[in-house]
Design brief:
With 153 residues, this protein is mainly β. It contains 1 helix and 8 strands. Strand 3 and strand 4 form a beta hairpin. The protein is elongated.
Length: 153
C-alpha cells in the first residue's frame, strides 16, 4: 500500500510541474490492455506521459484490473511507471507495476508509445484472501489512446 501512495503522489507532483507545458510535451488519455499472469487480466484506466530529461519519456498509469484467475472474478487497482529511453518510432522501455498483491518489473517494446508489448515477472508482496499467491511470468499487450495528440506537418 505504501508503494501506491508514493507513486500516486509522485504522479500528481509531476502533473503539477508540467501544467505549463505545451500539448506535445505531454500525452494523456485512456489505456486498455490484456495481460496473462496465472490467468486473464483486462486492464482499463488512464495514463499521463511527458518528456523527461531531453528525449526520454516517463509515463504513469492508473488502472483497474478485471481478473479471471483461479476460476474467480475480481477487480484489482494498479499503478505503474514506464520509462522510454528515446522517442523513436519503435523503442524499448522499462516498466514497473504495483498492485496491493504484486510488484511486477517488466521490459518491452513500444510503437511510438501507442502500442506496448512487454514481459515481466510478478513478485507476491501480499496474499489476497481466497486466492493462491499472485506471482509468476506476465505478458501484456497495451493500447494507449492519446486525447491530445496532433501531427505537425
Amino acid at each position: 500500500m505504501k508503494s501506491f501512495i508514493v507513486i500516486f503522489l509522485f504522479t500528481w507532483t509531476i502533473i503539477g510541474f508540467c501544467s505549463q507545458v505545451k500539448a506535445q510535451d505531454m500525452l494523456y488519455g485512456p489505456s486498455v490492455s490484456y495481460q496473462y499472469q496465472k490467468g486473464s487480466i483486462v486492464k482499463t484506466g488512464g495514463y499521463f506521459a511527458f518528456a523527461f530529461l531531453g528525449e526520454n519519456i516517463l509515463k504513469t498509469d492508473v488502472t483497474a484490473n478485471f481478473t479471471w484467475t483461479q476460476n474467480k472474478f475480481d477487480v484489482i487497482p494498479e499503478i505503474a511507471l514506464s520509462f522510454y529511453p528515446e522517442t523513436w518510432a519503435v523503442a524499448p522501455f522499462l516498466r514497473a507495476e504495483a498492485t496491493p498483491y504484486t510488484f511486477t518489473p517488466k521490459v518491452g517494446v513500444s510503437l511510438a508509445t501507442l502500442i506496448d508489448l512487454d514481459l515481466g515477472y510478478g513478485f507476491s508482496i501480499a496474499d489476497k484472501k481466497g486466492y493462491l499467491p499472485m506471482k509468476g511470468f506476465a505478458a501484456s499487450l497495451r493500447f494507449n489512446i492519446p486525447l491530445n495528440f496532433k501531427l505537425n506537418m
